[in-house]
Amino acid sequence: MRITVEELLQRYAAGERDFAGIQIDGVEMSEVNLSGIDLSDSDLGEIYMKDVNFTGANFRSSRIG
Fold it and tell me: Which of 11, 30, 39, 53 could disulfide-link to 16, CB 3.0 to 4.6 Å?
C-alpha cells in the first residue's frame, strides 16, 4: 500500500503503529518521533531522514534506497 509521509505522520499521531508493507519514497522527514513504529516488509525507497526517533522500531525485511 502506497502512502504519503503526511498520511503516515497523521496516522501515527492518531495512535497507529503498524505500517508493515507500506511503500513511501521521495520524501524528507526530520525531527519527528516514530518510536515503536512497525515498518517491516516496507519499501522506503529514496527517503531522507534526519533526527528521527526510531527507538523500538521494526525494519525487518524492509528496503531502503
Answer: 11
Query: Distance between CA atoms of 56 and 7, rounded to whole angstroms?
Result: 21
> CA 11 → CA 3, 6, 15, 18, 32, distances in Å?
11, 9, 7, 10, 13
- Give residue-wise pLDDT tens across range 33-62: 999 999 999 998 888 889 999 999 999 999
**Type and span of the H or E element at 7:** helix 5-13
- Show the cell assigned to 27: 520524501
